[in-house]
Fold this protein.
Amino acid sequence: MIFVSDTYDIVEQDPDVPTGPLTLPLDQWHRTRGGRMVDFAGYWMPVQFEGIIAEHLWTRESAGFFDVSHMGQLYVSGEGAEAALEAVLPIDLSTLPIGGVRYSLLLNADGGILDDLMVSRWGQGFYLVVNGATKWDDIATLRESLPDAVTLNHLEDSALFALQGPKAFEALEPLVTGEYPLSSLIFMRGGQFKLGGVDAWISRSGYTGEDGFEISVPAENAAELADLICAQPQVKPIALGARDSLRLEAGL
């Protein structure tokens, strides 16, 4: 007699990894605006609104609003955090200034590449953004690699937006206040601001080949801030299809 366990590996579900597809803070916001929803990286996300070509061209000519809240937002802090991260990221973090943003890779113990990511020096620690499809594995790898004195917080109560396009600054600047003007952010620099009166981390970065910003906000304020940004005449919501075509065209 052949049992199932004789021919197939039995894989137990990691209790720390949710089963999907899950919903993001803007799920209803997307559906209300006619977003065509698909299962992407374990989340329901819009693949298009008015159409991929139209959204692609709008972003190239004006400003596109992207919901990228499926990405993993992490904060690493504690004594020795810099050295601990340098053991798994092949960069010199000692040269990264407050507010600096840098592209890097997450490595395994043999130096193999597990994922690419963005890392910023934020306050007394480091803010990392990892890919949505691999974030649970990335979190597990980091927790196994970091010493006990270093804390990794998964910022699950935050949403993440990207505003991309030649008119992104024109659209965002009137909505933002802070200790210094939004215009002070050069490419790959970030800082703490108020967006519509709500605390936000804003960096001048993105993956469309255009000028733009990535914006981390409290999930509870996601819908009101999405409304605020998209009320600007330069801005339209853009979905996954155009995100991919824009990145492909830009060679990213």
About this structure: The first helix runs from residue 4 to 7. The radius of gyration is 19 Å.
